[in-house]
Structure formats: C-alpha cells, structure tokens
Amino acid sequence: MSDERQLTCCICDEPLRPPHNILGQRAYCDHHFALVNKPHAGFWRAGLVQIAFTGLLSALVAFLAGALGPLEGAALLAAGVVMAIVPSAIWLVFFYRQDRLEPEPKHRVAAVFFLALLLTDVLGRRILDDWFHVRLWASGSSATSLAASILIAGVTWQLIAYAAVRMAVYNTPEFDERMDGIVYGTVAGLGVATLLNLRYVLDNGGVALGPGVINVVTTALAQASFGGLMGYFMAEAKFTHRPVWWVPLGFALAAALNGLFSWLIGEVSAAGLSVEYWRSLALGLAVALAAFFALVALMRRSIEVTLRQTGRPS
Questions:
Q1: Could you tell me the pTM of the whole model?
Q2: Residue 182 CB: number of other CB atoms within 10 A?
Q3: Cβ(35)–Cβ(180) under 8 Å?
Q4: Residues 290-309: pLDDT tens digits?
Q5: Long-range contacts: 16-23, Cβ < 8 Å, 24+?
Q6: Which residues does the chain have with pLDDT short of 70?
C-alpha cells in the first residue's frame, strides 16, 4: 500500500490526480487553479472609471459652485451628503456592470462595505476622538501631526478595512481567487471613506461645494486604493505560501501610506486650500493612480510567476 497521501483541492476538497496544480505548497483542482490566477478586467475598468468620474465630478461641482453661488441650510447639507456617497456608488455600480459573467455575490460585497462603514462609526471615531483625543494635540508640530496620522489614524482605518474583509468574506467559499483580496479590500476602503465623508459633511452642517468635493474625492480614492493594496497581501497569503510576516507587512505598508497621505493632504490644504484647493485633488488623483497601477503590476507579475512555475503559457 502506498503511503502517499491523497491530495485534495484546498478550496473545494475535490480529490486530485497527477499532474497536480501546486501553488505555494497548496494543491488546486483545474477549476479553482484557473480562478485563482484569473485576470479581473471588470475590476480594473471600474477602478479607472472611478478615478476619471470623480475627477470630472470635482470639475462639475466646482463649476456649479461658481455659477450658483454659495448654498445655505438644507440645500448645502443635501449637496454634501450626495457628494459623500457618489464616489463609492460610481465604483460599485460600474464594477457590477462590468462583472456580470462571474460577479462577486452582492450580499458579500454589501456585508464588507457596511461592516467597514459601521466599524468606522462605532469604533474608528472613538479611537481617534475619545481615546487618543487626536484633535487636541496632533497639530502641535509637523512631526507630531505625521506620527498621529500614521500610527493612529492610518493604523485605525486599515485595521477596520482588514477586519471587515476578514470577518465578512475571507474564510468563505466566495473568497476563491487572488483578485478577491483586492476587490473586497477596495470595497472595505470605500466603506471607511463613505462614513468619513458623511461625518465630515454632517459634523460641519454641510460644506462649501468647492473644498468639500475635493475632500470627499481624495478621501474615497485614497481609502479605496490602500484597502485594495492591503487586500492583495491578504489574498497572496491565502493562495500562496508566504511567510508569517507577509500580511503584517502589507498592513503596515497600507497603514503608513494611508497616514502619510492624510498628513500630506492636510499640509497641502493648510498651504492654500481656500485659494488653490485643486492641489489637493491633483495629489489625491496622483496617489490613487499610482496605487492602482502598482496593483495591476503586482497582480500581473504574480500570475506570470505562477504560470511559469507550472509550465503554462502566460
């Protein structure tokens, strides 16, 4: 009797026969091996469209702000709430229209989004405002502000995005391909951004359209980008053999970039938001595009390495 253990697919437990599809010391059936390494054109198109549409939205709102003059009262509040929701809605709607052949389950996407949104409201704002009282001391100096942005704000927002993905979808059958990490990480980031934007509008009783849309757009693009980056590390850890420090490394990188981005936006805004607030938008778009194309490059390289190791054409 052979002592060789029967290999099964690490996702569906189907018994496998040689030749085996091995990825990072994990075995896959043909179906799930193809899924794990599948490109996800719908996601990339949705990401580019979100970046382009939010830029156009900013230009439109700025034009309307000049044409209509300042809004007041309920009209100002309503306009702010709409601005807070639109960036996330654009990405989610367009992604589903592009991903009709094999869409992510809507209930999983909704669960990740709303869990991130809820955790941001219930836990995130308490950490910053009630536990650490960041607003009272973080503006003392540039060094103090940068440290608070990275070690408290950046870590908090990324921890919430990580928890939403981990709790809502990571260990479910729907999380069955590499791209799922980026997709659900991005959705979690959008959940964080939506709540931050809503609180920004509501806490100020509405916001001036020009500066307001800049804040909303940059927050949405940044949180989505950093959530997707963290999700990439989570998916690689699940579907390939990575060292124990791999996910903490991805989390630390995303949190550091998140905090650094928030600090830079504050510095740019403080230097002239009321006069040249387009600088904040340009910075937000540049960071979002850089993170977006970095994810594209990482995914392509990861898939090419896998196919090369298994002797399959790339």
A1: 0.78
A2: 27
A3: no
A4: 777 787 777 677 666 656 65
A5: 21/310, 22/310, 23/239, 23/240, 23/306, 23/309, 23/310
A6: 1-5, 23-26, 35-44, 46-47, 50-51, 54-55, 58-59, 61-62, 64-73, 75-76, 94-103, 205-211, 266-281, 284-285, 288, 299, 302-314
Tokens of 275: 């006069």
Asked if residue 26 lies in contact with residue 8, where contact means CB atoms within 8 angstroms, the answer is no
**φ, ψ (nearest 5 deg) of residue 241:** -85, 105
CB count within 10 Å of CB 113 equals: 23
Residue entry with tokens 């704000």: 153
Find where tokens 């898939």 sit. 303
Q: Are 120 and 88 in contact (CB under 8 A)?
A: no
What is the distance of C-alpha 21 from the center of its chain? 30
Strand partners, 26: 23
Amino acid 284 reads G
